[in-house]
Amino acid sequence: MTWHDLLPFVVFAVTFGASILSGMTSGGGGYIITPFFIAIGLTPQQSIATIKLWALGMDSGSIAAYKKRSTKRKSLALFMLLAAIGVGFVSAIAIRHIGNQHLQLTMGFLNLAMIPLLFIKHHELKSRRRNQILQAFGLLVIVGLMLVQGIFASGIGSLINVFLIAIFGVSVLEANLIKRKASLAADVIVLAGLLGSGLIIINMA
User: Fold this and answer.
1) Does a structural domain hold residue 33?
2) What's the CA gap between 123 and 152, in Å, rounded?
3) What CA–CA distance (Å, rounded) separates 96 from 151?
4) Domain that holds residue 159
5) Does residue 83 form part of some domain?
6) Would 200 be classed as within a structural domain?
7) 132 CB contacts (<8 Å, ≥6 apart)?
8) I need a labelling partner for 84 at 20 to 30 A (CA). Which of 14, 94, 159, 163 fits?
């Protein structure tokens, strides 16, 4: 049996492990799966586009797990959803046109820079929700982070949760639910925008 024969099983094992990590850290699976796809021969563009399929399943599964929970901060959730739609369109265009070399360098830098996020204990974060100026700044930062996540698939989603919890006083579970719903909307639009581009790799064999 050759490496080529084992590849589908290795892909399954790595994506399964990345899914567990993403569930534990609210978005850290990209640290593993993005460089892995590049290592097995996908270009950075193909890696990012293909990961959107994985992210779609992750977000859908997470939302299904919260089906008995409702979002209390509905205005914040609506803002995130609308922002995600715009981010999805921009991300799809960017992924098609940014060169692989620039993508790879940026992805590598982001993955290294975001490693400390894996050690943040979300339940210990303190809220600053009464400061309106800080909240406005927080919304701008969150949109920027969503855009970075949409284009580079860098596992930066956990940092979005940090801002939702620390600045808006959202609980850990609700922050994850809001972020997952926004990510799902962005992923659907990105995948739709990449159809026919040849960047989404379905058959790893």
Assistant:
1) yes
2) 27
3) 10
4) 3-194
5) yes
6) no
7) none
8) 14
